[in-house]
Amino acid sequence: MNHNLQEHLPECEAHEEHAELIEKGRAHLPELTELYDLSDFFKVFGDSTRLGILFAIDGTPMCVCDIAQTLGMTKSAVSHQLKVLRQNRLVKYSKVGKNVFYELSDDHVRDIIEKALEHIEEN
User: Fold this and answer.
1) What does the pLDDT look like over 44-92, one tens digit per residue?
2) CA neighbor of 109 nearest in space, from 68, 69, 59, 63
3) Exposure of 67 in the CB half-sphere (CA atoms within 13 A)
4) What CATH number does domain 46-120 carry, 1.20.920.10, 2.40.40.20, 3.20.20.70, 1.10.10.10?
């Protein structure tokens, strides 16, 4: 995103409202409570550590120790972020003996992170 303060976005030169376009735009808007929930949901993706965890376990279930080693972090830091991801239903876990393996909760999470990466790599 260009943050140059000198550059302005183009604006209409005439103040004219287009009722059909306004109605189409409103038809696509979720309810206000859903917008708040979506905003909170995307805030979870606003942390590079959590994103790193999601990419690390994409297709490869891992335990906290393996995730920590992969990301060069402490187990405590990873556990804290996994709690946030789990609370937001972005990861799930399964126990295998004494080990707990984390993985993406579903294909929607995979789609979100992969599409986001694809979008930023376009430039």
Assistant:
1) 999 999 999 999 999 999 999 999 999 999 999 999 999 999 999 999 9
2) 59
3) 28
4) 1.10.10.10
| 57-86 per-residue burial string, b: 16 or more CB within 10 A, e: under 16 | beeebbbbebbbebbebeeeebeebbebbe
**14: helix, strand or coil:** coil
pLDDT for 32-46, tens place per residue? Answer: 999 999 999 999 999
Whether this prediction's pTM lies above 0.85 is answered by no
Query: How many Cα neighbours within 13 Å face the side chain of 50?
Result: 21
Q: Is 8 helix (H, G, I), strand (E, B) or coil?
A: coil
3-class SS at 16? coil
Where are the domains positioned within the chain?
46-120
